[in-house]
Design goal:
48% helix; single chain; alpha/beta; 4-stranded parallel sheet; 124 residues; 4 strands
C-alpha cells in the first residue's frame, strides 16, 4: 500500500514513454507476460474517471474539451489509487509523465512512496 506501513516494501515503477504508435502497449504487454508487472495506462485511467461523472471526471472533461493538460495532481491521484489496488506490485506506467510539470508533481507526491527504477523510452 502506498503511504502505508513503512516496513512494507515500496512498489517498483517503470515509466514507459513514446509517441503514439511507438509500441508502448505492445511492449508493456510483453513485459507483463514475462516479468509480472501491472500495466497502468495514464490515458485509460483518465478516460475511465472522465466517464464516471465524478467531480474529477468533470474537471478532466473540461481540460480535454479545452485542449489543455489535466492537472498533474489528478493524474497522480488516479495512478496512486490504481497502484493501491495491487499489493506488493511492480508497475509499468504508460504515457506519464508527459512534461516537466508532470515530473515535478510525481516527485512531490510519490517519490517517498515508490521506487522509480527507470524510464523506458520507445522511438518510432
Amino acid at each position: 500500500m502506498l503511504g502505508g506501513d513503512a516496513a512494507l516494501a515500496k512498489p517498483d515503477v517503470v515509466f514507459v514513454l513514446g509517441p503514439p504508435g511507438a509500441g508502448k502497449g505492445t511492449q508493456c504487454h510483453k513485459i507483463v507476460e514475462k516479468y509480472g508487472f501491472t500495466h497502468l495506462s495514464a490515458g485509460d485511467l483518465l478516460r475511465a474517471e472522465r466517464a464516471s461523472g465524478s467531480p474529477d471526471g468533470e474537471l478532466i472533461e473540461s481540460h480535454i474539451t479545452g485542449g489543455t493538460i489535466v492537472p498533474v495532481e489528478i493524474t497522480v491521484k488516479l495512478l496512486a489509487n490504481a497502484m493501491n489496488k495491487v499489493p506488493d506490485g511492480k508497475f509499468l506506467i504508460d504515457g506519464f509523465p508527459r512534461n516537466e510539470d508532470n515530473v515535478a508533481g510525481w516527485n512531490k507526491q510519490m517519490s517517498d512512496k515508490v521506487n522509480l527504477r527507470f524510464c523506458f523510452v520507445l522511438r518510432v
